Amino acid sequence: MDGCMYGKPHHISCAESRTGSNHVLCVVCCVFFLVTAVTLVGTDRGFANGDLKSAALNHPYSICSDPTNPESGLFIGDYTSIRYFNGKTLELVAGHQNEGCRDGIGDQARFSGIEGLVCFHATTKSMLIACELSNCVLRLIDVSQRAVTLLAGDRSVASRNGFGRDCGLYCPRKIVFDRSPTAKPNTVLYITEWGAIRRFDVNTTHLTTIKLVDPPTNFNAYGIDFARSGCLIVTCVSTHSVYAVNPITGAVSLIAGTGSGGAGDNEFAFPCAVAVVEIEHSVYCIDQLNNRIRRISLPQQLFA
User: Fold this and answer.
1) 256 touches 227 (CB < 8 A)
2) pLDDT tens-digit profile of 262-279?
3) Are the CB atoms for 109 and 97 separated by under 8 Å?
4) Residue 171 CB contacts under 8 Å (≥ 6 apart), including other chains
5) Nearest CA to 192 among 155, 167, 222, 168?
6) How crowded is residue 97: how many other Cβ atoms within 10 Å of its Cβ?
7) For the chain, percent helix, then strand, then coil, each to nearest 5?
8) How far apart are alpha carbons 170 and 133 in whole angstroms?
9) Strand pairing category for 125-132 and 292-297
10) Closest CA to 139 of 112, 178, 159
11) Is 106 helix (H, G, I), strand (E, B) or coil?
12) In this predicted model, what pLDDT tens digit does every residue of 204-239 receive, in sequence order?
């Protein structure tokens, strides 16, 4: 047995089911094949802020840490809002229980389908970028002001290169910053979407498409993370496999999986998220439909 079953996790750090009824934030610790999950906040599905007992989440899909308070501060993106969990209470940053697509302050803003969320520190304040699958846009959130503004996308549900509001995203999923040694921190984002991997410059708002070399048929990219060597680790939910992608050359290399779904040693079923652990030379992958977290050991040069 190479995994432990505990529901259908949708994100490496958030054990939540897309189809289930547990709308909770958990800390999950994996040691060999043992999994311990401790509920931090959330009960049944709902929309309520407050302490650990009263707070409720609505399909949380994404989570990231606060760089100003990495020990206890967490930002959580559920389907229609972004909350902040300080270790004791859940607070609204922006959004509402009703979905939509509108910039604004706090609860005047509207989101729909927040799949990806990253946090970075700009000068003296925390900023967030949210990736919305349903609205097909990227939004920028000033945490201290709780201000939400459109960063990229025109909601056209089309993959189109361009700048800011004049570019298009086709059902974008997960996002990750370029963390290679030569990259300027918090500048370049990589985005997975149906059939493509996109590159987005936060400063210029220029969105481009990585030209992939011999990608698998129906390359439905989903989970994504960055290895120090400059390589992207990407999951594909149509081939049920994990790939290494060179963002410069576009070369695509199979890491794990057989090209079809299954539950065997080298088989996955809807791998939807990955996390690179550099010190272990490993990639952890959520194998959603098999209800497992899988560990993939990779060559050291991938992390050099």
Assistant:
1) no
2) 998 899 999 999 999 888
3) no
4) 133, 136, 157, 193, 194
5) 222
6) 14
7) 5, 45, 50
8) 8
9) unpaired
10) 112
11) helix
12) 999 999 999 989 888 999 999 999 889 999 999 999
